[in-house]
Amino acid sequence: MKRFTGSNENNPREHRCGFVALIGRPNVGKSSLMNLFLREKVGIVSAVPQTTRHQIRGVVHLDKERAQIVMVDTPGIHSFRDPLVAHLNTVAHHSLEGCDLALYVADANRRVGREETNVLKFLAAQSLPVIMVLNKIDLSEKYVEEYLEAWRKFAGEDSFRSRLKYVIPFSAKTGFHFGELKSAIVECLPVHPPFYGPEAKTDFPLPLRLAEVLREKLLMLLSQEIPHALAVLIEDIREEDRLVRVRATIYVRTASQKKIVVGKNGHVLKTAGGQARKEMAEIVGKKVFLSTWVKVLKEWPEKIRILRQLGYWWM
Q1: pLDDT tens digit at each of 315 positions of the chain
Q2: Spatial CB neighbours of 219, under 8 Å, sequence gap ≥ 6
Q3: Are residues 225 and 298 located together in one domain of the fold?
Q4: 177 and 276 housed in the same domain
Q5: CA of 222: how far to CAs of 165, 179, 260, in Å?
Q6: Do the bridges between strand 16-23 and strand 101-107 make them parallel or antiparallel, or are there none, so unpaired?
Q7: Which of 20, 148, 149, 187 is the most exposed place for a label (fewest CB within 10 A)?
Q8: Which of 129, 155, 188 is the last residue of a domain?
Q9: Domain with 260 in it
Q10: Residues 117 and 235 occupy one common structural domain
């Protein structure tokens, strides 16, 4: 293990390509990190935990380095359980299957706690090489050594030296050490031709991507009021000559939550819809007409059939 200090020294005629899993507890900045690499938003970003609910692949093309990084963003690993959270943990665990490298993303501004311990124990049981990315270093580096000691404790001294390839202080917000992280990842990838064509950005299905855009806007407006009780289903996408019509249903668990989502005189729903339309238009390349309905579906996170309908078993 070493702190990254140099640049990649690959043979310039060799092309490197591989799958890189982003692993960490909720809300450590995994989606922000992937969006920074892609230079566009594929994963949604929110201060509310449990924001990412899918395995999302983003394809990073590095022509100068002759490399392609397929980043696999995953839900944060949780320490509590219900059918939805159990699914999120399963998706996160399965994300390492077929991957060549794990980016262990941690919040350097927060102490190692129970959820962090669960992540470390999970990673320690794997055989993949790991790069430890200590995110939010712009806020604090107070707990850097605590994370290193935790890895030693759960993975062992031998693994600390062999599997933990780099420890990189990082800030997805400011881009601090972005170049160093990029070079470290490329160095750890196998020599392989590209898996995706030069235009590919993600294989995340369009309906789910549009649903996540609307869900993000609602989470941003509602903050902690209904943190895990909201889901979005894209019922229909209809492309016309000059616009795309999108019909979305927003599911909540209670009538009181529906009132919050709609807002006084429909203000919340109108604001979120307007913000979502702009971002959806960038994704589809046309003007978007968005129709939204809010429905009460009691206990939807506990119903496997409903979770499948909402796309949480698409992968």
Answers
A1: 445 444 444 455 689 999 998 888 877 888 889 889 988 766 544 444 444 445 577 889 998 899 999 988 776 554 445 555 454 556 555 667 788 999 999 998 888 888 788 888 888 878 889 999 999 998 888 888 998 888 888 877 776 667 889 999 999 889 999 999 999 999 999 999 998 888 888 777 888 889 988 988 898 888 766 656 788 889 999 999 899 999 999 998 899 999 999 999 999 999 999 999 999 998 888 999 999 999 998 877 666 666 666 665 443
A2: 44, 46, 48, 51, 227, 230
A3: yes
A4: no
A5: 40, 35, 8
A6: parallel
A7: 149
A8: 188
A9: 206-309
A10: no
- pTM confidence score: 0.65
For residues 219 and 224, what is the distance between their CA atoms, to the nearest angstrom? 8
29-32 contacts: CB < 8 A, separation 24 or more?
Answer: 29/105, 29/107, 29/135, 29/136, 29/172, 29/173, 30/73, 30/74, 30/76, 30/105, 31/56, 31/73, 32/135, 32/172, 32/173
* Tally of domains in the chain: 2
Q: Following DSSP, what letter does each residue of 229-246 receive, concatenated?
A: S-EEEEEEEEE-SSEEEE
Spatial contact of 208 and 232, defined as CB atoms under 8 Å apart: no
Based on the fold, state whether residues 120 and 80 are members of the same structural domain.
yes
CATH number, position 284: 3.30.300.20
**What is the CATH classification number for the domain harbouring 57?**
3.40.50.300
The two structure tokens encoding residue 299: 């206990």
- Answer yes or no: are the C-beta atoms of 270 and 201 closer than 8 Å: no
Residue 128 lies in a domain: yes
